[in-house]
């Protein structure tokens, strides 16, 4: 498997950021890690090897980034206003730095960039796709939460609201944006086993909004034995990857 490490100083975040590329060609997927995770987590957990045939066959190229969750929705202290400000810095790092890096790497790929992740990474993947449907053209989200209140409690301000999909989506009235969202390939998956109750409930809510707005999507519920854990994500990822490559 072709593997490249990259590091640069992010002007948007004011610090060095690291990422890794897996694969030599194919549809790019932007991989967000789990809570407070690192760019190498997908590799270390075997996720890349679970789709090795697609990677080595040049059908998909994955770009795995770091999170800054410990400064935002997992800060567990400080001013909630700052959490949202910092997340918007991260948003700009992704859209203004990582996306141009991917486009330069892949030559503005046909079909566009897909976002993906599990757990907290699924939140990032869905939020980035919905906020920037002109930048991203698909999302594969597994076992995610999509309302920030579930993570940070009953605090709200503008920066929190506009990063909480189940809060901002019902009030989104720009039909051009909705049309762009409709053009994307949306796959959201959740289990029905241990530690998946909140994720299943919020996936239900997301499904209802997408249905109401006429957005094509695939939302799948796996069985009551499917827990919020890596062994199941290792089964989900290769099961759905073919829809994007």
Please describe the topology of this protein.
Layout: E1 3-10, E2 15-22, E3 27-32, H1 41-44, H2 47-50, H3 52-56, E4 60-65, H4 80-106, E5 113-118, H5 120-131, E6 136-142, H6 149-152, H7 158-161, H8 165-168, H9 175-182, E7 185-190, H10 197-212, E8 218-221, H11 230-241
Parallel strand pairs: 3-4, 3-5, 5-6, 6-7, 7-8
Antiparallel strand pairs: 1-2, 2-4
Task: Give the structural class.
Answer: alpha/beta
Spell the H/E element sequence: EEEHHHEHEHEHHHHEHEH
CATH class: Alpha Beta
- What is the approximate shape? globular
State which percent range the strand residues make up.
15-25%
CATH homologous superfamily (4th level) name: Alpha/Beta hydrolase fold, catalytic domain
Fraction of residues in helix: 40-55%
Q: Sheet bearing the most strands, described?
A: 8 strands, mixed
Number of helices: 11
Structural commentary:
With 245 residues, the chain is an alpha/beta fold. The chain has helices at residues 41-44, 47-50, 52-56, 80-106, 120-131, 149-152, 158-161, 165-168, 175-182, 197-212, 230-241; strands spanning 3-10, 15-22, 27-32, 60-65, 113-118, 136-142, 185-190, 218-221. The two termini are 17 Å apart. The longest helix has 27 residues, at 80-106. An eight-stranded mixed sheet has the order 1-2-4-3-5-6-7-8, sandwiched between helices. It has one domain: Alpha/Beta hydrolase fold, catalytic domain (Rossmann fold, 3-Layer(aba) Sandwich), CATH 3.40.50.
């Amino acid at each position: 498997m072709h593997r490249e490490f990259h590091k640069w100083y992010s002007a948007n975040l004011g610090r060095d950021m690291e990422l890794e590329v897996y694969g030599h060609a194919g549809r790019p997927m932007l991989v967000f890690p789990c809570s407070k995770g690192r760019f190498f987590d997908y590799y270390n957990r075997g996720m890349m090897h679970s789709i090795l045939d697609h990677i080595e066959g040049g059908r998909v190229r994955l770009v795995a980034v770091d999170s800054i969750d410990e400064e935002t929705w997992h800060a567990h202290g400080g001013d909630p206003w700052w959490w949202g400000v910092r997340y918007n810095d991260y948003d700009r790092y992704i859209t203004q730095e990582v996306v141009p890096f991917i486009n330069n790497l892949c030559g503005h790929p046909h079909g566009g960039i897909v976002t993906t992740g599990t757990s907290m990474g699924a939140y990032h993947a869905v939020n980035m796709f919905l906020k920037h449907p002109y930048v991203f053209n698909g999302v594969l989200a597994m076992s995610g939460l999509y309302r920030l209140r579930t993570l940070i409690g009953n605090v709200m301000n503008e920066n929190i609201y506009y990063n909480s999909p189940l809060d901002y989506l019902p009030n989104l009235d720009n039909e051009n944006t909705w049309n762009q969202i409709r053009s994307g390939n949306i796959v959201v998956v959740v289990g029905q086993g241990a530690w998946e109750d909140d994720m299943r409930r919020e996936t239900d809510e997301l499904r209802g909004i997408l249905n109401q707005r006429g957005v094509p999507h695939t939302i799948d519920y796996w069985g009551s034995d499917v827990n919020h854990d890596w062994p199941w994500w290792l089964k989900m990822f290769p099961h759905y990857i073919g829809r994007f490559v």
